[in-house]
Amino acid sequence: MADEEGADRWSGIGGAALLKAMFDAADVMAGVFELLDDDYRYVTANRNAAAFYGRGEGGLDGLTGRDLGLTRAQIDARLTTLRACWAAQEARTAEYPFSLEGGRRGWFLGTFSPMPGERPRVAFVVLDVTARHQAQRDADRQKARLALALDATELGLWEYDLAADLVEWDARTRILFGVDAETTIDFATYAAAVHPHDFHLVEAAYGGALAGKEGGAYVVEHRTAAAGARGSAAWVRGAARVVFAEDGRPRRVIGTAQDITAQVVARERQDLLLAELNHRVKNNLATVQAIAAHAFRSAGDDPATFRRAFEERLQSLARGHDLLTRNVWETAELTEIFAAALAPFDQTCVRLHGEAGRVRLRPDLAVSLVMVLHELATNAAKYGALSAPGGEVAIDWSLQPQGLRIFWRETGGPPVSPPEREGFGSRLIRTALGSFGGSANLAFPAEGLICEMTAPLDS
Fold first, then answer.
1. Which pLDDT score, from 0 to 100, does residue 406 have?
2. Which domain holds residue 417?
């Protein structure tokens, strides 16, 4: 039978020359199987197929799967494909894994075709596609890593084909710019999605990259035309690189888009806070200088008097700042302002009464009100209601159409008369709220000092 098979190996197979070329082709394993009851046998196989099993040319001829040391499961899997091909009398193509002794593993792409005749023979052409599978796995891994990186950084991905004037945006980029999933995007569509006041920034950065600046890479920050609509971003950072052809002409642009709205808001807020801090520092220095000058004039040649007056007012200023520091320089609640101003004094003699609800004041107004209230309390402790047993200070506040109204009334203290001259404390009380559009008016009835204050309220 071996001689018959050797002599007739190519008989009945059309295109012998073509098959011979296929048999000799590099990287192609080819041959003919014959189906047995519980196994298969190589009728013939080219040198590549024989080399795969570590044999010389013709070394597979006449061998079965069992002879080659394949497992029962491997033989049955091969038989299933061969029997289905023979029964249907049509070619089958499939990818399937392989594993050999010694740990070698990989993937084959095989085409199996039934041979003419009554004997169950099937021709095969097999390619080792292990490298392709590995490349595909690496590509899938890279794709997964890219997707993870894009998700972690919330980046959108886009690509622009200059010749076709076609832009591909992923789902996140479309959301950032407020463009629905069905819209076809070209450069004009993108330009319309950029805020018109910022498009010149994009144009300059993109034009420089097309000219080859920075190796074709650019980064630009701009607003979107659809800010706030359908979840779109108010501010976007675009980072991209131009890909050039061999002749130096730009072919496409690959880039990312990121929502930086929160970063821009934080940056603007930081700039505002720094400007406000500079303003406050200047105002505080001016206040300290005024306090020092008045305390020096009032104390005359008595250093102890100067030190006491100066320190008391500095402490009042500091308590106002401490209150705002606890509130991160946002706003201060009115009852907290009262507490900060009256902290050094006996508050059992102070009655507070106001409308229900929380009233909050802007930072600089809160500091000024702390100092005004502290000055009133200091005067009351020295000369007024808080300087005598049974004296009392009543503080009433209410919300009026023009803003906040605070009414300070002293009773039970020594008789009061208007001062002969206005001192620093009186000027501070009278003017401190005026710069904010508020006021402080003093009255001196005999039964006790009265001060009516107003202050504007932000919405």
1. 92
2. 264-455
By the 10 Å C-beta count (0-12 exposed, 13-18 middle, 19+ buried), 152 is classed as exposed
Q: Give how far the C-alpha of residue 63 lies from the chain's centroid of Cα atoms, to the nearest Å.
A: 63
Residues 6 or more apart whose CB falls under 8 angstroms from that of 213 comprise none
What confidence tens digit (pLDDT) does each residue in 245-280 have?
989 999 999 998 888 888 888 887 777 666 655 655
Question: Which of 132-136, 184-188, 285-289 shows the highest mean pLDDT?
Answer: 184-188
Note whether 436 and 368 are within 8 A (CB). yes
How much of the chain, in percent, has pLDDT values that exceed 70? 75
* Residue 295 domain flag: yes
What was the pLDDT predicted at 1? Answer: 45
pLDDT level of residue 122 (50, 70, 90 thresholds): very high
Residues 281, 355: one domain?
yes
pTM > 0.90: yes or no: no
**186 and 65 within one domain:** no
Interatomic CA distance for residues 397 and 440, integer angstroms: 13
Specify if 142 maps to a domain: no
In a shared domain, residues 404 and 283 = yes
Query: How is the beta sheet containing 350-354 ordered, strand by strand?
Result: 350-354, 392-400, 403-411, 450-455, 439-443
Angle, vertex CA 27, rays to CA 25 and CA 31, nearest 5: 65
Q: Are residues 293 and 411 in the same domain?
A: yes
Of residues 245 and 317, more confidence is placed in: 245
| One domain, residues 305 and 412 | yes
**Contact criterion met (CB below 8 Å) for 258 and 236:** yes
Is position 414 within any domain?
A: yes
Please indicate, yes or no, whether residues 95 and 213 belong to a single structural domain of this protein. no
> Helices (DSSP H) in 254-302: which residue ranges?
261-299
Instruction: Report the domain count for the chain.
Output: 3
Whether pLDDT at 374 is above 50:
yes
Write the CATH number for 86: 3.30.450.20
**Residue holding tokens 């808001």?**
265
Q: How far apart are CA 279 and CA 273, in angstroms?
A: 10
Tell me what pLDDT residue 287 has.
52
State both tokens at 303: 């250093």
Q: Is residue 141 part of a domain?
A: no
